[in-house]
Design a protein that fits this description.
Blueprint lengths: L4 H5 L9 H9 L3 E4 L12 H7 L15 H12 L10 E5 H13 L5 E6 L4 H8 L3 E6 L11 H5 L6 E7 L11 H14 L2 E5 L25 E6 L11 E5 L3 H13 L5 H11 L3 H23 L14 E5 L5 H10 L6 E4 L1 E2 L13 E5 L4 H21 L2
Parallel strand pairs: 1-10, 3-4, 3-5, 5-6, 6-7
Antiparallel strand pairs: 2-8, 7-8, 9-12, 11-12
Helix pairs in contact: 3-10, 4-10, 5-6, 5-9, 11-13
The structure holds pyridoxal-5'-phosphate (PLP).
Pyridoxal-5'-phosphate (PLP) binds next to helix 5.
C-alpha cells in the first residue's frame, strides 16, 4: 500500500521532533528547561475554570458548528475595543488558531496555489499549507533588518498567477517582530493591487513591548473583503490546551464557505468555549500585566544571549520568541548534544532548531529559536546553562 504524496511530503515539526531526545534526557535523570515550545508557564486566569464550573447542564451537547454565541460575542467585544466591528456571521470558532490557519488555507487555495509568507515563519504553516498541497513562497527577511519586510518591489516580484494570499503572524513567531504601520499599509496595498487575500495571524496580539502597540490589520480600511484574521486563546491567555481559536472576516462569501468546513468537523468542544468566553471578557489590564511579565523575560533572555561570544541577535519587540545565530555550524546538532551529552548539576536546556522556520533551503542552519516562557529565575538559570554548554561544545568542536 502506498501513502499519499501529500502526507509523505510533510515535514516533522522542528519544535516537537526532538521531544523523544528530551524525554530520554529526562529518563536519564536530567532536568530540561524547555525553551523550544511556546507553552507559557503563566497561570491560566481563574475565570476560565470558574465559567466552566458554573455552566449548568445535564448533557455536554454538540456545540453549534459556528461556535457558542457567548464566545462569539466576547470576541466581537474584544475587537470592538480597537474599533473593529465584526457581525455574528463574521466569526467562526475553531479548534485553536491551528484549525483557523488550516481552514483559511483550504478556503483560498487549490492544490498548487501559492501563499506569500515572510520567512522565518511559524513552522506549522508548512504543515497547514502542505495538507492542502498549497505552496509557501517565502519573502526572506533578515536579522540585520530586525526581520522587517523588504521593499514592495522585492515582494511583488514573487507574485505569480498562482499566488492567492499573503500570510504572516504579527507579532511574529519566531522573530518577535512587530510590523510597523507602513509595512501593514504596504501589505494592504499589494493585496489590493494583485487581488490577494490577507491572512493576518494575530494570536500574539497585545504582546508588544517597549511602548509598541501591535495593531490589528482589522484597523486598516479598504481591505475588509480580503482580510482574514486568526485568533486564539492559547498564548495571550495562557490556555494552549483549551484548543480554542477563531477565524474572523467580513467577507461573507468566504465565511459561508468556511462554515461548510466547520460543519464537516461538527463543532468545537463546548466547555472550553464557555471558559474561553470568560477569557476574552478580561479587561485590558490583564493583557498589560502579562505583557510586562514577558518584557522582563525578554530582557533577561536578550541581555544574556547578546553577551555570549559569537551569538548574534536583535532585540525582539513582541510575542515571546526570538531567533538567533549560534557560533556553531549546525544548530540542531548542538541542541541534541545539549540534551544528550551536556548537563550542569543535572540540568540542561532545549531550544528549537531554526532551519524548519525557513522555506529557502540552507537558511537558518546555524540559528535557533528561543521561547522565553519560563519565569525570571528559570530564564536566568537556563541562559547560564546555555552559555556554559556553548563553551563546552566549542571546546570539543574546535
Ligand atoms: C503564529 C502562530 N499561529 C498559530 C498558532 C497555533 O496556536 P493554537 O492552535 O494553539 O491556537 C501558533 C502556536 O504556536 C503560533 O505561534
Amino acid at each position: 500500500m502506498k501513502l499519499s504524496e501529500r502526507v509523505l511530503s510533510l515535514k516533522e515539526s522542528p519544535v516537537r521532533k526532538l521531544v523523544p531526545v528530551a524525554n530520554r534526557a529526562k529518563e536519564a535523570g536530567k532536568k530540561v528547561y524547555h525553551l523550544n515550545i511556546g507553552q507559557p508557564d503563566i497561570k491560566t486566569p481563574k475565570v476560565f475554570m470558574e465559567a466552566i464550573n458554573n455552566y449548568d447542564t445535564d448533557i455536554i451537547k454538540y456545540s453549534f458548528s459556528y461556535g457558542e454565541p457567548v464566545l462569539i460575542h466576547a470576541i466581537q467585544d474584544f475587537f470592538k475595543r480597537d474599533g473593529i466591528v465584526f457581525s455574528d456571521k463574521n466569526i467562526l470558532i475553531t479548534n485553536g488558531g491551528s484549525e483557523a490557519v488550516t481552514f483559511a488555507t483550504i478556503a483560498v487555495c487549490d492544490p498548487g496555489d501559492e501563499i506569500l509568507v515572510p520567512e522565518p515563519f511559524y513552522t506549522n504553516y508548512n504543515g497547514f499549507t502542505g495538507e492542502v498541497s498549497a505552496k509557501i513562497k517565502p519573502i526572506t527577511t533578515k536579522a540585520e533588518d530586525g526581520y522587517h519586510l523588504p521593499k514592495k518591489a522585492d515582494i511583488v516580484k514573487l507574485i505569480s498567477p498562482k499566488t492567492k494570499a499573503i500570510m504572516f503572524s504579527n507579532p511574529g513567531n519566531p522573530t518577535g517582530t512587530i510590523l510597523r504601520q507602513d509595512e501593514m499599509d504596504m501589505i494592504a496595498e499589494i493585496a489590493i493591487e494583485y487581488n490577494l487575500f490577507i491572512i493576518s495571524d494575530e494570536v500574539y496580539r497585545g504582546m508588544a513591548f517597549d511602548g509598541l502597540e501591535g495593531i490589528s490589520m482589522g484597523t486598516i480600511k479598504g481591505i475588509e473583503d480580503r482580510l482574514i484574521i486568526l485568533e486564539s486563546v492559547s498564548k495571550r491567555y495562557s490556555a494552549c490546551g483549551a484548543r480554542i481559536g477563531a477565524i474572523c472576516s467580513r467577507n461573507e462569501e468566504l465565511m459561508a464557505n468556511i462554515l461548510k468546513l466547520c460543519q464537516a468537523r461538527l463543532c468545537v468542544a463546548t466547555l472550553e468555549q464557555i471558559g474561553a468566553a470568560a477569557l476574552y471578557k478580561l479587561p485590558q489590564s490583564y493583557t498589560e500585566s502579562i505583557k510586562n511579565e514577558y518584557q522582563k523575560r525578554r530582557d533577561i533572555a536578550y541581555n544574556a544571549l547578546s553577551q555570549i561570544p559569537g551569538v548574534v541577535c536583535k532585540k525582539p519587540t513582541g510575542a515571546f520568541y526570538f531567533i538567533f545565530q549560534l557560533p556553531v555550524e549546525d544548530a540542531e546538532e548542538f541542541i541534541v548534544w545539549m540534551l544528550e551529552d551536556f548537563e550542569l548539576d543535572g540540568e540542561t536546556i532545549m531550544l528549537a532548531p531554526a532551519e524548519g522556520f525557513y522555506a529557502t533551503p540552507g537558511l537558518g542552519r546555524n540559528e535557533a529559536r528561543i521561547a522565553y516562557v519560563l519565569n525570571e529565575d528559570g530564564m536566568k538559570r537556563a541562559m547560564y546553562i546555555l552559555e556554559k554548554g556553548l563553551e563546552a561544545y566549542q571546546q570539543i568542536h574546535r
